C-alpha cells in the first residue's frame, strides 16, 4: 500500500493523505478524484515534503487512510506549474487549493458531473476469472460509463472494476474526442517590418528557447508592438512550443483573434469567461496536451497547464484589470513573470505606458527594455492640448466646452471619426432631491445609485443592486424634485445627439459591449465608417486601431486625480495617454483635447508636453520618498461582516495583535474606502513595510495567531492596486 498526498480544490485545507492501491500509478501532478467526508473532490497528487508553510498536511494513521476513487487520464500537471501554485498561495496568503482551482476548473475534467472518461467491455476474457468479475462483466454487457456508473450498474466494487481494466477486460474510451486546434502557420502572412521592429523582433526570436528572460516592450501607441511580439510567437511555433498572450479585457480578445488569424492563417485558442462550457473543456484539454500552440486569453489563462510553454506575452501590461480583486487577490502580470521563471522561458510585457513597477525592474537591471519610440508607417503622435474649463466652461447643463464643440463639428464636416472619453458608465453618477438634498444610495453599499437611463433604472456599480427610478423623493415624498447630477457617458451622448442630430453615435462601455460578439460588431461598424462619434469609458482607451479616428476629447481629466489613491496620478496619466493614442493612427494626424480645471497639475503638464519621461521621473521620486511601492511594500487586510459591531471588534483585535517591528507599520483599522459593500461592514488595516521585509511570513504568523468569529471574514490583499 502506498500513501499519497493530495491537494484538493474547493477547500482551504492543506494537502491530505490518501491510500493508493497497488497497480495504480499516480506520480505527483496526477489529477485524481478522492473522497472528503461524503463528497467526491477533485485534487492533484502533491509532492512529498513540499514545504510551503501555507499547507499543513493532516496526518492520519495508515489504517484510517481512504483510497482515491481514481485518476484522470490527463497529463500530470508539470512540476513548474505545481511550484507556481505553491508560490502564488504563499505570496498572496491564499489557500493552495483555491489556486489549483484556477489551474483545473471543474469543467476541464467533467461532463455533467461525471469524469469524461468512460469504460466499456473489450470482449477479452480476463486470465483470472472470479465469480465477481464474471457477474460484473455480464451486467455491464454492452453498456459504457464511468467507473462509478459501471459500479452502480453491476453492483461490483470499483476495485473489482479496476482489476478488470488491468486485466484488459474493460477499456477506457475518450468521449467526444476533442478535435485538435488548427496549427498556426508562421509563414502565412509575415509583415514587412520597419527597421526598429525588425531589430526588436530579432531580439525576441533569439530569446525563444534561451531560458528565462523578462522584457519590457515599451513602444508608443501605434508603434506596432503587436507585430513585433507576433514574431516571437512565430518563432515559438516554429520550435513547436506553446505561447500564451494575456489581454486585459475580454472585449479585446475578439479583435486580437482576427488580427492573429490575418497573420497566422487560423485563429488561436481562446480562454476567457465568455466561452461555452464545451469550448472551455476542449480548449483546456488542447492546452494540457500541448496541441494548442497559441492561447489568447484573459488573466486566468496564465494558470492553464501548458504542456510545453515557450513564451508568455502580457499585452497592455500596465492595466489595472490584471489585478484580480476577488478570491485569490493576485496580479496576473506579476504571477506571469513567476510562471516564466519556473518554466524557464522569456516573457514580454508590452505597454505604451508601463507601470512604475515595471520601469523600476528595468532600472534595477532585472528586465531588459526594448523601445519602439515612433509610430509605425510614419504616423505621428497626436498633438495634445488642454482646455482650461475655468476659462472655457461648457454651457449650463452641458459638458462639452466650446473649443471641443468646434473641433467635433470640423471632424463631422470632414467625415472623420471622433472619440469622447469619460470614465463613467450610465447617465449620471448621482440622483439628488432638489428640495431636501436627499441622495439616493445603495442599500447594501456606501455608494450612490447610478442612473442608467437607457435601461430605465438606477444601479449600484459595486454590488449590482438595481431599482426603478423613483418618481417621488424617498425622503420628502415630493414629486418631480429628483435631479440627475454630473455626467455619465449616456448623458454626454444625449448632448452630442442634441447638438448634432445627424451624427451617428455609439456608446462603448461594459454595458454595451458585454460580449465578444458585441465588441466585434462595434469594431466592424467603426471600420465601415458607420459611426461618427464614440462616447466611451476606459474600455475604448486600449488596443483599438481606427485609422479614420482623428479627434479625442477627454470630458473630465480631473476625475481620477481626486481621492488620494497611491496610483491616482499614474492611472490618470496612463488612461489619458492611452485614449490619446487612439487618435491619428492612420495617415491623418490626430488631435487630443483634454478638459481640465488644473492644467498645471504635473500629470497634465507631462501629457501636454508629450514628456512621459518627466512624469515617470517625478512619480518615481515621490514613491521613493514615501517608500511606497515598488520602493516599499503594502498589504491590505479587509475585515468584514454583516454584523457591524463584530467587524469593528475583530478589526481592532487584529490591529492590536500586530507584531512590533521597526521595518513595518500598521495603519488603521479604519473604515475601508467602501465602508459597506454587499451588505457587509468593512474595516481595513494597511501594512507598510520596507522593500525586503519578509511580509508574508510575518503576516501569516500574525493572522495565524488571531481568532475571529465565523461571521467575520478576513481577506488579505498583498500589493493592493487601489486602496
Ligand atoms: P501598438 O500595439 O504598438 O499600439 P499596433 O501593433 O496596433 O501598435 O500597430 C499599429 C498599426 O500599424 C496596426 O494597424 C498594425 O497593423 C500596423 N502595423 C504595425 N506594424 C506593421 C508592419 N510591419 N506592417 C504593416 N502594418 C503594420
Ligand atoms: Zn451596492
Automatic annotation (TrEMBL):
It catalyses: Couples ATP hydrolysis with the unwinding of duplex DNA by translocating in the 3'-5' direction; ATP + H2O = ADP + phosphate + H(+). GO terms for molecular function: 3'-5' DNA helicase activity; ATP binding; DNA binding; hydrolase activity; zinc ion binding. GO terms for biological process: DNA recombination; DNA replication initiation; DNA replication, synthesis of primer; double-strand break repair. Zn(2+) 1 binds at residues 433, 436, 473, 476. GO terms for cellular component: primosome complex. Its cofactor is Zn(2+). Its EC number is 5.6.2.4. Initiates the restart of stalled replication forks, which reloads the replicative helicase on sites other than the origin of replication. Recognizes and binds to abandoned replication forks and remodels them to uncover a helicase loading site. Promotes assembly of the primosome at these replication forks. This is Replication restart protein PriA. It comes from Sphingomonas lacunae. The gene is priA.
Amino acid at each position: 500500500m502506498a500513501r499519497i498526498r493530495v491537494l484538493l480544490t474547493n477547500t482551504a485545507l492543506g494537502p491530505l493523505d490518501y491510500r493508493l492501491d497497488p497497480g495504480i500509478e499516480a506520480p505527483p501532478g496526477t489529477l485524481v478524484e478522492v473522497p472528503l467526508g461524503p463528497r467526491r473532490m477533485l485534487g492533484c497528487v502533491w509532492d512529498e515534503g513540499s514545504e510551503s508553510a501555507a499547507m499543513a498536511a493532516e496526518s492520519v494513521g495508515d489504517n484510517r487512510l481512504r483510497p482515491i476513487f481514481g485518476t484522470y487520464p490527463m497529463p500530470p500537471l508539470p512540476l513548474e506549474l505545481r511550484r507556481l501554485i505553491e508560490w502564488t498561495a504563499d505570496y498572496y496568503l491564499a489557500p493552495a487549493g483555491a489556486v489549483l482551482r484556477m489551474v483545473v476548473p471543474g469543467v476541464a475534467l467533467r461532463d455533467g458531473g461525471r469524469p469524461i472518461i468512460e469504460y466499456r467491455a473489450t470482449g477479452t476474457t480476463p486470465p483470472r476469472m472470479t465469480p465477481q468479475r464474471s457477474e460484473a462483466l455480464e451486467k455491464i454487457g454492452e453498456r459504457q460509463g464511468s467507473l462509478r456508473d459501471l459500479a452502480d450498474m453491476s453492483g461490483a466494487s470499483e476495485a473489482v472494476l479496476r482489476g478488470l481494466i488491468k486485466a484488459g477486460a474493460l477499456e477506457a474510451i475518450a468521449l467526444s474526442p476533442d478535435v485538435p486546434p488548427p496549427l498556426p502557420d508562421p509563414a502565412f502572412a509575415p509583415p514587412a517590418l520597419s527597421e526598429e521592429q525588425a531589430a526588436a523582433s530579432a531580439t525576441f526570436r533569439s530569446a525563444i528557447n534561451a531560458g528565462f528572460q523578462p522584457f519590457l516592450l515599451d513602444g508608443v501607441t501605434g508603434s506596432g508592438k503587436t507585430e513585433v511580439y507576433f514574431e516571437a510567437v512565430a518563432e515559438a511555433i516554429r520550435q513547436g512550443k506553446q505561447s500564451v498572450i494575456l489581454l486585459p479585457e475580454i472585449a479585446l480578445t475578439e479583435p486580437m483573434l482576427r488580427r492573429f488569424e490575418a497573420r497566422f492563417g487560423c485563429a488561436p485558442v481562446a480562454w476567457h469567461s465568455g466561452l461555452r462550457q464545451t469550448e472551455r473543456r476542449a480548449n483546456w484539454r488542447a492546452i494540457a496536451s500541448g496541441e494548442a500552440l497559441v492561447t489568447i486569453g484573459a488573466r486566468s489563462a496564465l494558470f492553464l497547464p501548458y504542456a510545453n510553454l515557450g513564451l508568455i506575452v502580457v499585452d497592455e501590461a500596465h492595466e489595472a484589470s490584471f489585478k484580480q480583486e476577488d478570491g485569490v487577490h493576485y496580479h496576473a502580470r506579476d504571477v506571469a513573470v513567476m510562471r516564466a521563471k519556473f518554466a524557464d522561458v522569456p516573457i514580454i510585457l508590452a505597454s505604451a505606458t508601463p507601470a512604475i513597477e515595471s520601469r523600476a525592474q528595468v532600472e534595477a537591471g532585472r528586465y531588459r527594455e526594448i523601445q519602439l519610440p515612433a509610430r509605425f508607417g510614419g504616423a505621428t503622435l497626436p498633438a495634445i492640448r488642454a482646455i482650461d474649463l475655468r476659462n472655457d466652461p461648457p454651457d449650463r447643463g452641458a459638458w462639452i466646452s466650446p473649443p471641443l464643440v468646434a473641433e467635433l463639428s470640423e471632424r463631422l464636416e470632414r467625415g472623420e471619426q471622433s472619440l469622447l472619453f469619460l470614465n463613467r458608465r450610465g447617465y449620471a453618477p448621482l440622483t439628488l432631491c432638489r428640495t431636501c438634498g436627499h441622495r439616493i444610495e445603495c442599500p447594501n453599499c456606501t455608494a450612490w445609485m447610478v442612473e442608467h437611463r437607457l435601461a430605465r433604472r438606477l444601479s449600484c456599480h459595486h454590488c449590482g443592486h438595481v431599482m426603478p427610478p423613483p418618481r417621488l423623493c424617498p425622503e420628502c415624498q415630493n414629486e418631480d424634485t429628483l435631479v440627475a447630477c454630473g455626467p455619465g457617458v449616456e448623458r454626454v451622448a444625449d448632448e452630442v445627439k442634441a447638438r448634432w442630430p445627424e451624427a451617428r453615435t455609439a456608446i462603448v462601455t461594459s454595458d454595451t459591449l458585454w460580449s465578444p460578439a458585441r465588441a466585434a460588431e462595434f469594431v466592424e461598424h467603426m471600420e465601415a465608417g458607420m459611426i461618427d462619434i464614440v462616447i466611451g469609458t476606459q474600455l475604448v482607451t486600449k488596443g483599438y486601431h481606427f485609422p479614420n479616428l482623428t479627434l479625442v476629447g477627454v470630458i473630465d481629466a480631473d476625475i481620477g486625480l481626486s481621492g488620494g489613491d497611491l496610483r491616482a496620478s499614474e492611472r490618470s496619466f496612463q488612461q489619458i495617454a492611452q485614449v490619446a493614442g487612439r487618435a491619428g493612427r492612420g495617415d491623418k494626424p490626430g488631435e487630443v483635447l483634454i478638459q481640465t480645471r488644473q492644467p498645471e497639475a504635473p500629470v497634465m503638464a507631462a501629457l501636454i508636453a508629450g514628456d512621459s519621461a518627466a512624469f515617470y521621473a517625478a512619480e518615481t521620486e515621490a514613491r521613493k520618498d514615501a517608500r511606497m511601492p515598488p520602493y516599499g511594500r503594502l498589504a491590505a487586510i479587509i475585515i468584514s461582516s454583516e454584523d457591524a459591531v463584530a467587524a469593528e471588534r475583530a478589526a481592532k483585535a487584529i490591529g492590536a495583535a500586530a507584531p512590533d517591528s521597526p521595518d513595518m507599520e500598521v495603519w488603521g483599522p479604519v473604515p475601508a474606502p467602501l465602508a459597506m459593500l454587499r451588505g457587509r461592514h468593512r474595516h481595513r488595516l494597511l501594512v507598510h513595510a520596507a522593500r525586503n521585509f519578509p511580509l508574508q511570513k510575518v503576516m501569516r504568523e500574525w493572522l495565524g495567531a488571531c481568532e475571529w468569529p465565523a461571521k467575520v471574514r478576513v481577506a488579505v490583499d498583498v500589493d493592493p492596486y487601489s486602496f
